[in-house]
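Support case: user asked for a sample of complex input and structure output to validate their parser. Sending the pair below.
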Amino acid sequence: MKKIILYAAVLFSAVSCKVEYGESGYLTSGQLQSYASDIVYVVVEDMRILNLLIDIDEYLSMTQEEQKDSPFYGLLMHEDGETLVMDLGAMDKTVFRTGGKSINGTGAVWTVENYPGGRSYYSSGVCASVECTGTDKWSMNTVDDGQGIEMRFDIQKTGSTDTGRAFSMTFSGTETDGNYRSEFRNEDGACSYLYQGEQLTGTFAGSLIIDIYENGTRKDWCRVTCSEDWSIVMETSRD
Amino acid sequence: MKVSLTVMPVTSAGRCILTFVLMLFTCVTSIYGQDKERVHEPVTFKYEVRAGWGGFPFVDRSIMVTDNSEIVPPDGSLSSLYRDYNGDTYMTGVFSAEFSFNFRKWFSLALGVDCDGIYTRRYSADTGHKTGTDRRAVLTFLPQARFSYLNREYVKLYSSIGLGYSFGTSYGDSVLFPSVQLTPIGVTAGKKVFGFFEIGVGTLYIGCMAGAGFRF
């Protein structure tokens, strides 16, 4: 019986013809670099949450006349004294809870639900919790359930100009997807971020390391170094 | 393992096939039981078996083979980076086995079973090593009416038309679709043991088939 199966296999192999070329799916350095770029994007997008809260805080401190000239006017709505909602293009409206305090007050905790950030349209919306830990200092936790990404930031505002705000931050995060898990964090000191308004991405500078694990075993890594002149250097385990 | 069955639109086609097969059997029995006073030229060999291999099965290819350009690329998530990927896909061509009833020198009814194998190797995106093989097959049951218009002792020329069903199977999924095959020209060479070659078009294959057989 085994011989018959073997002869049949040889016969089929001899007469078979190729009808479709295969995929080029082997994991390459380029794909790891693309993944690392996505993680940098997540870091930048999460920093924009803090800046949005600072902008909202400034809006809430304005007089009614001053608010009329703000882009938030007519878009940011009170649900109650401590809850605001705004349509930012997510599936549901984004909800901000202020706890009745300014984001700049030590001990204040603001929360955000359904922020349309995340890595891609696969994101189901980001939830964030931001606590003011001192003068111009915050800690922020973000969760993107749809992508399985959680991050934690410690942020210090280092400067403010007419064109934007400068920050220094340290961060760490994880992504969990089935048997796979990635861990990422800043490397070689704090990173910097220059926020230049809602219309611009901003400038991220610093070094980021990503480790990828399968069932607890390290499989790949990637290191990203961004400079303030927009140059990016990437190294991966598949170089 | 849950098996789903996809039945291609068969309502009118299925009726056609059933009607054809019933007509075929009606003709066959009427020919067979016809007035025995009529004198017919005796059939030298009442039965025939043959086996062959042919191609190309275009319909099987379009239904059972995934076009790799339609596969969704990795979405950037971790698991999609490490998902297995398809290697080249191969088809064996159609292997055919047939039993024929020769009712007249010019007419016979063939009952055929055909099989077409399809396989794709899968590889790990992480290591590039083979992780398995996806195997599929299409089984066709195809009764055919065969008409010989040249009957010599060692050479016959014929045409045939067949209607039947094909059943395609893959892991956890199946598809059933009607099968129709037209052979405008075929030739057999040999008396008791013969070789054959035919050109055909239909859901079974578009191209040619060749093989050998035995009459008794």
